Amino acid sequence: MRAFGALLARELRLAARHGGDTFGALLFFFVAGALFPLAIGPAPEVLARLAPGIVWVCALLAALLPLDRLFGADFEDGSLDQLLLSGLPGSLVALAKAVSHWLVTGLPLLAASLPLAVMLQLPRAALPVLLGGLLMGSAVLSLLGTACAAVVLGARRGGVLLPVLVLPLTVPVLIFGAGAVDAAVAGLPVRPLLLLLGAYLAACIPLCPLAAGAGLSGAVE
Amino acid sequence: MDAGARVDALRRRFKPARRGHSLCFNPPPRPDTVTDVDAIPALAAQQTGPRPVRRTLHRFANPGRFLRLAARVQPWLTGPALLLTLLGLGWGLLFSPADYQQGDAVRIMYVHVPCAWLSTAGYAGLAAASLAALVWRHPLADMAAAEIGPVGALVTALCLATGSLWGKPMWGAWWVWDARLTSELVLFFLYCGHMMLIRAFDDAERGARAGAILALVGVVNLPIIHYSVQWWSTLHQGNSIGLTGSSTMSGSMLWPLAVAALGTTLGFAAIVVARLRAAVMERRLRGLLMAHAESVA
Q: How large is the average pLDDT for residues A190-210?
């Protein structure tokens, strides 16, 4: 547990000292979101209809950006071998990485999604549902992304490969998350969709670190 | 180019795999190794260890044994596959009745449904091979997973294409965002990702391991994707064929469909076995080339 805490603290310290990575993902999120009104026109009713989908897709894409370097730097300079020799199981190393990715990318995206959703004319009543969905959805994405990042470690063109591997797996997240916001806009019950999203998260929490741990031990073998 | 540089180039191209016992690296056969190989079953019979699975499965990890067995099985797969596929398709396309609503357009079913069945069955096979590769480190399972991938992607693409051709006259659109189409599309992406991942590593063994993990993540995810997409939107017709309960399909259509499905399934197996044989021989050849390069150097 202490080793886990130390690893997490190290990751957060690293992220704090390279603030540019988080900022880059946030900026990407905003820029990509701002392109949609330019492309489809500024009509408020059209934007309001599309807003849940735009925010969700942009958040998924933005959260992908830092995944490439999640293990990359540690793998190249050998720290990953040290981490795996530290006695902490590979799956817990991966879990610490996933938690740090979520804290450093997922939570800031959550905060940034609020202004973007308002700018895209999303009805105010749907904002809490959007935030609640993104809270869980970004955690799922961090977990799935960590698993895939561990698997592509050491591959040629890993950065191109990673989105191709992660995005198909996030289909349920997108359906439940954006569906919940749509339901909130339409005045339908959102609870079932959010519960399903929570169930998916609950399944990912134990399984993704296991897969990621297997990937890590394969990478440093 | 001088000999030394050529050997270096060969070395770079045929980087040896790291696994010790695998079939990746076969030195040129010597008489004593051949007798050793033939003694393996006897040794295995003497062994009364607590690992029966390992013993039975790993017998086929021997490339020579696998090639001999596969060469014997191959004609029994290819022949019936061709025969049954042609029979099923001919029966379905020419002699089965037209649908009372869909007319002759229903005949594309005899291609579409077997492809759809094979796309999921192929992924199940891929996942099973991946599991065997991860759990027992079976070298042939690694190669089987790598060889199933492209064939599975092909049938998935065929299923999407025929579905699209069927959809145009029936639904009036080449593509609709229906649940089954979408989950089939996601399956196609999963196949493609798996294929790309396996080939993205310089070290073939590392690629196989990464691909195996990804295949298992994918197979856990597939039912979730399937159901999530189903709740999201459904336009596709419901199941007409059930193993339990009665089918809502007439026997005059069901029989040719069953024959075509059996034929294409055998065809899938035949292609995979042929690819696997080719892959084993290719690795052997590389081993020989490497040994040759080393002896020259």
A: 91
Tell me the nearest-neighbour CA distance from B296 into chain A, angstroms: 31
Q: Is B75-280 in CATH node 3.90.550?
A: no
Q: Taking 80 as the threshold, does the pLDDT of residue A212 lie above it?
A: yes
> What dihedral do alpha carbons A155, A156, A160, A166 form, nearest 10°?
-10
What's the DSSP call for residue A1?
Answer: -
User: Which residues of A are less than 8 Å from B217 in CB distance?
Assistant: 144, 147-148, 151, 169, 207-208, 211
Distance CA B176, CA A137 (A): 26
Q: Is A205 on the interface with B (CB under 8 A)?
A: no
Q: Is A148 on the interface with B (CB under 8 A)?
A: yes
Q: Please tell me the pTM assigned to this model.
A: 0.80
User: Which among A164, A172, A215 has the least Cβ separation from residue B193?
Assistant: A164
Interaxial angle between packed helices A44-64 and A158-169, expressed in degrees from 0 to 180 and rounded to the nearest 10 = 130
Mean pLDDT of A95-116: 92
pLDDT tens-digit profile of B204-245? 888 888 999 999 999 888 888 878 877 776 555 555 655 455
Show me where the domains of chain B are located: 3-55+287-296, 75-280
Give pLDDT tens digits for B59-106.
666 778 888 888 888 888 899 889 998 998 888 888 777 776 777 777
Q: For residue A171, give the nearest of B18, B207, B225 by CB distance.
A: B225
| The 3-state secondary structure of chain B, one letter per residue | CCHHHHHHHHHHHCCCCCCCCCCCCCCCCCHHHHHHHHHHHHHHHHCCCCCHHHHHHHHHHCHHHHHHHHHHHHHHHHHHHHHHHHHHHHHHHHHCCCECCCEHHHHHHHHHHHHHHHHHHHHHHHHHHHHHHHHHCCHHHHHHHHHHHHHHHHHHHHHHHHHHHHHHHHHCCCCCCCHHHHHHHHHHHHHHHHHHHHCCCCCHHHHHHHHHHHHHHHHHHHHHHHHHHHHHCCCCCCCCCCCCCCCCCCHHHHHHHHHHHHHHHHHHHHHHHHHHHHHHHHHHHHHHHHHHHHHHC
Q: Do A179 and B232 touch (CB under 8 A)?
A: yes
Instruction: Point out the least confidently predicted range of A32-36, B184-188, B253-257.
Output: B253-257
| A169 close contact with B: CB closer than 8 A | yes
Domain with A190 in it = 2-220
Domain tally, chain A: 1
Q: How far apart are CA B167 and CA B101, in angstroms?
A: 14
- Contact A17/B at CB under 8 A: no
